[in-house]
């Protein structure tokens, strides 16, 4: 009984808005020395590096970039894919360090009726590999390649397991074999760091691929993949736009609200996602030197689109909206307008014409064609404006 009640207690998460405690968020525009950040220069030279470092040390871990070499090998090219409407290119990205190697398999469809180089939606795929079927026998709404290419974008995907298996023991058998020193450091990278690292190596490839426009890469991820898309875009400023779908705790939702999934719970179920230091914040959200609005702020001035689903309270829709709102002032430094209302928009109402976009779709924890239609419109607005 004692054990059972312990388990039930440990798993009890709350969904009651009236029980959200009073909290004060760390100010993205006040430096650790207490200086107010009033211009882009201080933001970019002092405060932004400071926040990035805080996330590295306390949450996601380091992002090493000292590899020996990178090689791109075309594994398959089909100019007649999607009934002749697109070019399919599958590429293996091999990265070497100290005699060890990691390989990322990338699937890419480039529409034919669009002027090249094409803008791209890149998905960090955390679900089954068949969701991104290059043969299109499976047409998953999670990666609606036909819809995206018909809308004038190339679409690409890689699978997280190429970098780190999503398993609390097995996660070491991937990229971390190249960086074993990360495993013994309290601020060492684990699985989510490794997945984000992989997104950057795909970007290295895009920079060399003449079919695509490396200055218009929209990075997208769902849930744990959405936590990763935020961290990758925060780290790597080459990503021009970030989509974070139902990313919840340690994604786009504020930790201090303690609503839905909490840090203790995520660190217990998924001890292989975040660094060792993050475990110090179990049940101590208020001691964190950051909150997730600051992760969104790191992406400024690049546009960020976050979503939720009404039946996914676990991912705290209100906390996600509030994280965006509290990041607005950093985008404002760049003179960028956020059209987010003061309180969350009505269900299914998308805010797209805004540097910070948002919708709360009716339904379950998922990424659907409806979500993608909004991502496309959001990218249309921002990429055209460029
Ligand atoms: C859940 C986890 C969430 C989210 C989700 C997913 O079990 O608690 O943080 O990442 O998985 O990735 O679908």
TrEMBL record:
This protein's name: Acetylxylan esterase
A GO term, aspect molecular function: carboxylic ester hydrolase activity
Top-level taxonomic group: Bacteria
InterPro entries, per database record: AB_hydrolase_fold, FrsA_esterase, GCE-like_dom
Keyword hit for Signal: yes
Species in which this protein is naturally found: Chitinophaga lutea
PANTHER family, sorted: DIENELACTONE HYDROLASE DOMAIN-CONTAINING PROTEIN-RELATED, POLYKETIDE TRANSFERASE AF380
Keywords: Hydrolase, Serine esterase, Signal
Alphabetized SUPFAM superfamilies for the sequence: alpha/beta-Hydrolases
4-O-methyl-glucuronoyl methylesterase-like domain mapped to chain residues: 94-335
Signal peptide start and end residues: 1-12
């Amino acid at each position: 009984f004692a054990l059972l009640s312990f388990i039930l207690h440990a798993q009890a998460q709350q969904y009651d808005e009236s029980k959200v405690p009073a909290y004060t968020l760390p100010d993205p525009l006040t430096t650790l020395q207490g200086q107010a950040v009033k211009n882009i220069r201080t933001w970019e030279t002092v405060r932004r590096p400071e926040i990035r470092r805080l996330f590295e040390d306390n949450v996601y871990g380091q992002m090493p970039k000292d590899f020996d070499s990178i090689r791109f090998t075309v594994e398959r090219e089909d100019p007649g894919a999607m009934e002749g409407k697109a070019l399919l290119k599958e590429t293996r990205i091999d990265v070497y360090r100290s005699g060890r190697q990691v390989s990322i398999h990338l699937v890419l469809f480039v529409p034919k009726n669009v002027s090249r180089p094409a803008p791209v939606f890149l998905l960090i795929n955390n679900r089954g590999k068949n969701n991104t079927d290059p043969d299109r026998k499976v047409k998953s709404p999670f990666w609606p390649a036909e819809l995206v290419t018909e809308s004038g974008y190339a679409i690409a995907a890689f699978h997280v397991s190429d970098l780190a298996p999503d398993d609390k023991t097995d996660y070491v058998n991937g990229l971390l074999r190249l960086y074993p020193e990360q495993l013994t450091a309290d601020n060492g990278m684990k699985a989510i760091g490794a997945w984000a690292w992989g997104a950057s190596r795909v970007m290295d490839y895009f920079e060399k691929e003449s079919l695509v426009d490396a200055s218009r890469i929209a990075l997208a991820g769902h849930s744990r993949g959405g936590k990763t898309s935020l961290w990758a875009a925060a780290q790597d400023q080459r990503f021009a736009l970030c989509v974070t779908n139902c990313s919840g705790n340690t994604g786009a939702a504020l930790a201090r609200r303690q609503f839905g999934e909490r840090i203790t719970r995520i660190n217990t179920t998924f001890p292989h996602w975040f660094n060792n230091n993050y475990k110090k914040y179990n049940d101590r959200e208020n001691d964190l030197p950051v909150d997730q609005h600051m992760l969104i702020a790191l992406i400024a001035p690049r546009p960020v689109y976050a979503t939720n689903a009404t039946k996914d309270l676990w991912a705290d829709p209100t906390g996600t909206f509030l994280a965006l709102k509290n990041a607005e002032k950093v985008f404002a430094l760049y003179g960028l307008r956020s059209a987010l209302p003061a309180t969350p928009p009505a269900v299914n109402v998308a805010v797209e014409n805004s540097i910070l976009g948002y919708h709360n779709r009716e339904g379950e924890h998922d990424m659907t064609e409806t979500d993608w239609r909004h991502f496309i419109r959001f990218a249309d607005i921002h990429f055209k404006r460029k």
